[in-house]
Amino acid sequence: MKEKFIKSTIILLIGGFLTKLLGMIIKIIMSRMIGTEGLGLYMMILPTFSLFIGISQFGMPIALSKLIAENTKNNKKLFFSIIPITLLVNLVLIIIIILGAPILSQNLLHNKNTYYGILAIALVIPFTSISSICRSYFFGKERMFPHVISNLLEDVVRLTLMIIGIPLFIDKGIQYAVCFIISSNVISEAASILILFLFLPKNVKIKATDLRPSKHYIKESLSIGIPNTTGRLVGSIGYFLEPIILSSTLLFIGYQSSFITTEYGILSGYVMPLLLLPSFFTMAISQALLPVVSREYAHKNLESVKRKIKQAIKVSLALGIPVTILFILFPEFFLQLIYHTTEGATYMRILAPICLFQYIQAPLSSALDAMGKSKDAMIASTLGMIIRTSLLFILSLLKIGLLGLIIAIGVNVLVVTFHNIKKVRKALL
What we know:
This protein is mostly helical. It contains 16 helices and no strands. It has helices at residues 2-57, 60-70, 75-108, 115-140, 145-170, 174-198, 208-211, 215-252, 257-275, 279-298, 302-329, 331-339, 345-358, 361-370, 374-396, 403-427. α11 (302-329) packs antiparallel against α13 (345-358). It is globular and about 60 Å long. The protein starts with a helix and ends with a helix. The model has no long low-confidence stretch (mean pLDDT 83).
């Protein structure tokens, strides 16, 4: 089992590195093709995108991975019990997005150019949801290779579409180019789903009884998925409210809309992706950790669970500490190297030490999910979001620009991380 855990982690690390590299290339090409204004527009829509993606999955990928890893269920029936829930949630969200797009763009984001980008989200969410559920099946089986291949193909397709499509749409207007960027996820996610289905065992026979959803499986999946998705939803709501509160408050006290869009684009589009670059490493560890901890905790092997969680945190810090030091000392170098700009260097120096705690959040959260403690993770997310949103509003009124947002982000990271550490320790007593 130890060898399988190490093998899974290595596969996910290699895949995560390549995916992160492709993701950075995509972000660099996108930012250069659509410019700072376009990037700012995209980053204003992204929190809304993340919110609806979080709701659409309804925590079902985590539930499926955990239940399959425990190896006590009919996996085919479990899979087909989860799909109807996901599709129903997606249908409701699509209607909400279509009806709410004008309000979101004009009244909340205060930028009518976000309208088409918000509408594009409705096209994407069903594909993203199905793709996530398919991946979670392989996670539960501790088969990481299909996930890696599908992720790489997805990014390659997205990159190709951007290179071809952005020049065709940007002449019509920056809003249409941003809409295309979001819509391109439909094709990339569809390609990912196709690849995942190719990795399914060839000798699997699906009976009519497997297609009938099980009420027991649905109930058990919801008991895991609802706390998980509530926690993610709370975080997504905070992320969704962020540009709304920021833009509304700063406009109220006299800042120009162009300043807000540009600076928010620098922080969200340049600084944060760079600071969170090592997260592919911790995410790989977390994904490999979940099925192992689920199985061991179900069999009451608490010492084994403790060892795995400690290993995950130590390895995350082993990478995070040197990266944090480099980001503090040489932010201009990394910004210039990747984005051909030094804007955001001050933001990086302030946030880099805080992100060290962010690196260990993923293993802690994954451990709580695996032990059936998603409710504790949800409470941490809720507490962190309330503090972050409150601080953002209060500090933005002090006329300190985006420094209020930076302080709010930092406090949120510390609160959530230390809360999760406390709950993991309590679960393993």
